[in-house]
Amino acid sequence: MGDESSTGEVNDNQCFVDGHSKSPIPNDSQVYIEHSAPLQRDLNTDTTHLYKRRWLIVCLFSSYSLCNSYQWIQYGIINNIFMRFYNVDSFTIDWMSMIYMLAYIPLIFPVTWLLDKKGLRVIALVATALNCIGTWVKVASGRPDLFAVTFLGQVICAVAQVFILGMPSRIASVWFGSEEVSTACSIGVFGNQLGIAIGFLVPPILVPNVEDMDELASYVRVMFYITAGVATFLFIVVVIVFQERPAIPPTQAQAAARLIPAENYSYTASILCLLRNRPFILLIISYGLNVGCFYAVSTLLNRMIIEHYPGEEVNAGRIGLTIVIAGMVGSLICGIWLDRTKTYKQTTLAVYVMSLVGMVVYAFTLNLGHLWVVFITAGALGFFMTGYLPLGFEFAVELTYPESEGTSSGLLNCSAQVFGIIFTICQGKIIDRFGTLSGNLFLCVFLLIGTIITGLIKSDLRRQRANQLAKTAAAASHHETKDYGATAPFKSSHP
């Protein structure tokens, strides 16, 4: 079935799984499924249902995502304090953030494979368990001679992040209707961003820059204990509450995905199919450039602020908070906008352009000597740069349906981690040698490249088309049954 030729060649929109043709959305815009006759009949008669529990699931996910992402930046935002406490250099403390990025790159493929094989509940349990273990390891590192222990704890939390970062789009698709899926994805991303915001705000308050090392050690331990307590509570709640998926699918697209036989799925073939999808490859690159710039700015924010405003560690945290809070507002607005308009490419491109503009303005105003100006420009930058995150996830799902949302999001995040490490190291070196303006202009160049690449992406909204075609088929089936009247053939009902 599909467009396979006699020579065995396949067009760009077709993939093979275990030797079987699988072309869900080929060029003629039809939905093709293996064993099409019985599956199409089931698809047309399946009931969809939205459960109230979906909001609890996405909020619980956001909560443990928050706890994990908070720890990503908790060292970097008080870089100078931890340098003195553990007697290490600034580049070593930068690695406390970059290890989150580095761990993601080799682990994303086995994690997405596990997601496809075992499902969301197993992924949630592993994520919260690792996060809980990592926080308790850090509790044991509250002395100046135990940097290796605190680094081990951070590595464990970084591994936990791999089980979290790409999940918002998967949870949104599995639990939410087609008219709210982008909003749900935004809520999932919201938790991650709120965690980063708290990571900017709380550590400078909990760990003040005091001279006495014993006093400083007590502050550090208090911060670690609070984090461990929260992580433990969330692990227990996930064990009790988190559910794999709803009994009845929320959309026709999810109903179709459930009907594809498991033996016809190959993870390797799915990856290869995604890598042959040209619009998705362009999105991988552009997403990586944008989010990589955000990672670099966040990691190096303390250094940039302290260089121009010495002694302002607390305000550096507040500026970081402003970036992320503004970004959370942007994320929610963009998610709601997508659900209403379905203008994925246009919205993504507009937000990308504004991220570039925001970065340029931030770069040229950072050294003016007025902190209130930095708060405004950083907030504007965060609104668009962080608001871009759910846009990238949802655009990817549209471009790659019916491939796994976890796999497409994982590839986006893998790109972001690679660029994040490169940009953080390069911008840090440029700042050390040439100053903050040169470092920020370095990022502006790559945001410009990302903007151009985004403009080249062909908008192929496969999931939207699949939902529309399924609704049309269901309506036609209902009309046909109504015409038959009393002689209509019996159709099995699904609970």
Write a structural description.
The protein has 495 residues and is an all-alpha fold. Helices cover 74% and strands 1% of the residues. A two-stranded antiparallel sheet has the order 1-2. The longest helix has 31 residues. The two termini are 31 Å apart. The N terminus and C terminus are likely disordered.
Short description:
The chain is an all-alpha fold. The chain has helices spanning 36-45, 53-73, 79-86, 90-118, 120-139, 147-162, 168-175, 181-206, 213-241, 252-259, 267-275, 278-308, 313-341, 344-365, 371-385, 388-400, 405-434, 436-455, 462-484; strands at 15-17, 20-22.
Shape: globular
Helix and strand element order: EEHHHHHHHHHHHHHHHHHHH
Summed over residues and divided by their number, the pLDDT gives a mean of 79
> Structural class, from secondary structure content?
mainly alpha
DSSP strand content: under 5%
Helical residue percent band: over 70%
Number of strands: 2
Distance between the termini: 31 Å
Spatially, the strands of the biggest sheet line up as: 1-2
Which stretches are poorly predicted, pLDDT < 50 over at least 5 residues? 1-14, 16-45, 484-495
Strand and helix layout:
Blueprint: E1 15-17, E2 20-22, H1 36-45, H2 53-73, H3 79-86, H4 90-118, H5 120-139, H6 147-162, H7 168-175, H8 181-206, H9 213-241, H10 252-259, H11 267-275, H12 278-308, H13 313-341, H14 344-365, H15 371-385, H16 388-400, H17 405-434, H18 436-455, H19 462-484
Antiparallel strand pairs: 1-2
